[in-house]
Design a protein that fits this description.
Blueprint: H1 2-22, E1 95-98, E2 101-104, H2 112-117, E3 122-125, H3 133-142, E4 146-149, H4 159-169, E5 177-180, H5 185-197, H6 202-211, H7 216-226
Parallel strand pairs: 2-5, 3-4, 3-5
Antiparallel strand pairs: 1-2
Helix pairs in contact: 4-5, 5-6, 5-7
Length: 231
Amino acid sequence: MKSRKIRKSLLAVALGPVAALAVGAAAPSVAVAQAVNPCAPAATAPANPCAPAAAPEQAAETPAAELPKGPYDTTTKYAQAVYGNQMPNIVDNYLRATPYVGTGGLIDPTGMPILKGLGFKTVVNLNTADEGATAEAALAEQAGLAYINIAVPTKAPTAEQVAEFAKIVEDPANYPILVHCESSNRVGALWALYRASTGVPPMVAVEEGRAVGLKTSREAAVREQLGLPAL
């Protein structure tokens, strides 16, 4: 009898863990690693309240229209001188000598703001102070126009005046330009001499001068400077 009791005790000790599981004892937990999804979006880092504010994005600057290479260059979209039918009745004998150069006679005293509105940037006046050049300077400046006075009291401009005009008319920063005098006769003389200075044949230059106002009263002096026969 005593040996039976000993065997039962040993059996109870051996079956103890199994019995505990059978009556619902908790099994030890095992951690399962989660697989990483390579296509999942990256987690957003929390904002740092102490970080400096990001600078606002600046809008790209609109590039300025490319400057033309000279008074006859039409390969750019730069502002041009208006055509005759677009010019109000404020400039006597107005013509468009080149895409960037308008020519004419007297400008109406009220005309400077209108010229500015039409896109002109520079006014070149061949009249003298006695013919109102000084007073016109103030009107041009008030309208926001650049103003240059090349006073021509003689029959034709001098070589120095032609050289001065060449620098003005060949600088695209001055475009569009309006060059004028009393009637456009001096303008025609200056234009003929300027064109000849660029290599245009003298007689062709005279014809171009006539086209913008050169009259016989000044053509003789122009022809003399160009070495052409007298009229």
